[in-house]
Amino acid sequence: MNQIGDGVLLRRIGRGDRRAFEAFYARHAPWLTLRLRRRCRDPELARELLQETFLAVWRAGGSYRGDGEVVGWLWSIAVRRLIDAGRREQVRPQTVELPDETLLTWSPSAEEEAMTDTYDARLEVALRSLAPELRAVLQATVLDGLTIREAAVVLGLPEGTVKTRALRARRALRAALS
User: Fold this and answer.
1) Please, what's the b/e burial string for 76-100 (b: 16 or more CB within 10 A of its CB; e: otherwise)?
2) CA–CA separation, 59 vs 16, rounded Å?
3) What are phi and psi of 110, to 5 degrees?
4) Helix, strand, coil % (nearest 5) of the chain?
5) Which residues are CB-neighbours of 123 under 8 A, at least 6 positions away?
6) Which residues contact 171 (CB under 8 A, 6 or more apart)?
7) What residue stretches are annotated with the RNA polymerase sigma factor 70 region 4 type domain (predicted)?
8) What is the 3-state secondary structure (H, E, C) of 96-110?
9) What range does the domain containing 150 cover?
């Protein structure tokens, strides 16, 4: 299909010819990828734009009328996708920086204040003796009442790691309290 012109390939694509689409893609994807990468610094976004462009070709290949070069037509599709991506980025919520740590002051929550009186001194000492990562898992699963899956998401850890740390924390607490 290397000898077949782009106009013929597009008409075949319009009729659902996958081989024509593959030949058209092989012919134009390399240069289009390079042009998109020059306009867009994010390689992942460039790949998405390439896919969206060729999806549009697959859907609308039969609508090409042969006015001008196929390269210009294809680039105009890609540019519209690039502009749309830029617009989506502008309306996406922006990340807000955290305030300076000196402005943050720690104060116990109402739950922590209420629970302070219920824990005896031995338990408090045992909890403080735990490694911070074990204490964080216990906080999430016991005090906050999260499931292992929810704790894994909150802590940014694999579920297996959360399970292992919870088991280690309980064993350490039992040993410290016995």
Assistant:
1) ebbeebbeebeeeeeeeeeeeeeee
2) 9
3) -60, -40
4) 75, 0, 25
5) 173, 177
6) none
7) 122-173
8) CCCCCHHHCCCCCCH
9) 108-177
Residues 6+ apart with CB under 8 A from 107: none
Say if 101 falls within a structural domain. Answer: no
Structural domain contains residue 96: no
| pLDDT reported for residue 166 | 92
CA-nearest of 151, 177, 153 to 166 is 151
Answer whether residue 151 shows pLDDT above 60: yes
Burial label for 177, CB within 10 Å (0-12, 13-18, 19+), is: exposed
Any idea what the CATH number is for the domain that residue 145 is in? 1.10.10.10
Q: Are both 64 and 120 inside the same structural domain?
A: no
Looking up residue 32, the CATH number of its domain turns out to be: 1.10.1740.10
Helix (H) / strand (E) element for 90: namely: helix 70-91
- Average pLDDT of span 119-141: 80
> Is pLDDT above 60 for 98?
no
Tell me which amino acid residue 142 is: V
What letter represents residue 135's amino acid?
Answer: R
Q: Are residues 14 and 69 in the same domain?
A: yes
Q: Which of 32-36, 47-51, 101-105, 134-138 has the lowest mean pLDDT?
A: 101-105
